[in-house]
Amino acid sequence: MTTFETFQSAAIAMADRAGVMGREFREASGPVAETEAMTAAMAHKDGALLLLGKPGSGKTLAATRRLLRPICNPANWLFCNGGWQYRRFIATDPRRTGELIWRTARSLARIQQYDQDTVEELFSARLLVLDDLGQEYLDKNGFLASLIDEIVTERHRRELPTLLTSNTTPAEFTERYGHRVLDRIVDTGRMVACDGDSLRRKPATDRPLPALITEALVAARIDEQEADRARQHREWRQREDAREASAREAQQARAAARAEPKPVDVPMTEAEVAARKAKITADLEAWAAKNPGASA
Ligand SMILES: Nc1ncnc2c1ncn2[C@@H]1O[C@H](COP(=O)(O)OP(=O)(O)OP(=O)(O)O)[C@@H](O)[C@H]1O
Ligand SMILES: [Mg+2]
After folding, report:
1. Domain residue extents for the chain
2. Between 202 and 287, residue with greater pLDDT
3. Of ligand 1's atoms, which has the minimum distance to the CA of residue 38?
């Protein structure tokens, strides 16, 4: 397998964990035309984005592509020991340790009211896509509608993006989930009605977006990482050289201190010795003269 193929497999496995099927992955990671849904999804950062529109207007593909974008970006992966590892690029923010999650509204309807772990996963996902709202069974107690409301509100509070798609009209959406949910989405994000002329699929030749994964991007990532490793090695070598040089200097200074010459006794000349003796004798005589009774 080439490094490109191993990258593709790693990205597909990660997308699968997020909830994106193989077919959807292939469709969304290939080159696609830019539609209104695509433009809205790509521009979307924080808060909630609701894509409403007729069947086939490209909402699911746009949302899937938005979710796959970080997964298919080689800059978020590290190639080491022959394998690819996904780097959690926002793991430093404790509110954003969650995963990328793609779920259909039908699967959301199966969540039990007391399943707090699953609900917390939906609250904390780095990016959450809820696809095909309107196709699921709504319980009589309104649990699902209030769960969607809670998800939108809580994720807005945590500054995390949520993408919702539905092929209902705004009026049908309001009727189904209540004013509160739509108001919350509009308050905390944006609703894009992908209907009318602007929604018509443009020909694939019209402003095609580049494929999400390309061999060139993966190769460039490996080059970038190798250059990075070489730079880190160079910097480490420089630090080591500097450390060794300063240790050597310190050792030389210690050796020099040990070898410093001791003061040498300079012998007196004979004349100096004689003069010294004469001075001592004279001093003794002077003292004896001053102290006649005492013996020196
Ligand atoms: N931007 C695009 N470029 C090329 N083909 C696209 C694009 N968007 C969607 N398609 C094609 O159109 C088909 C329908 O798109 P998609 O499933 O995303 O629509 P949808 O709005 O989610 O429909 P529904 O409301 O029925 O779920 C897809 O199978 C895909 O191949
Ligand atoms: Mg769809």
Report:
1. 3-214
2. 287
3. 1
- Looking up tokens 């002077």 gives 286
Most confident of the ranges 153-167, 179-193, 256-270: 153-167
Note the CATH architecture for domain 3-214.
Answer: 3-Layer(aba) Sandwich (3.40)
Near ion ligand 2, which residues have CB within 5 Å?
60
Do residues 166 and 49 make contact, with C-beta atoms less than 8 angstroms apart?
no
Looking at all shown ligands, the one closest to residue 66's CA atom is 1
Per the CB < 8 A criterion, the answer to whether 116 and 34 are in contact is no
pLDDT of residue 94: 45
Q: How far is the CA of 60 from the centre of ligand 1 (A)?
A: 6
Q: How far is the CA of 202 from the centre of ligand 2 (A)?
A: 17
Ligand 1 center–CA 195 separation, angstroms: 13
On the question of pLDDT at 239 being above 90, the answer is yes
Which pTM does this prediction carry? 0.77
Q: Which pLDDT belongs to residue 97?
A: 45
Contact assessment for residue 149 and residue 180, using Cβ atoms and an 8 Å cutoff: yes
pLDDT band for position 165 (cuts 50, 70, 90): very high
Ligand 1: centre distance to CA 57 (Å) = 5
**Centre of ligand 1 from the C-alpha of residue 59, in Å:** 6
Question: Ligand 1 pocket by C-beta < 6 Å: which residues?
Answer: 27, 32-33, 35, 38, 53, 55-61, 132, 165, 167, 204
Ligand of minimum distance to the alpha carbon of 64? 1
Neighbours of 134 (CB within 10 A): 16
The rounded mean pLDDT for the chain is 86
193 phi/psi in degrees, rounded to 5: -85, 105
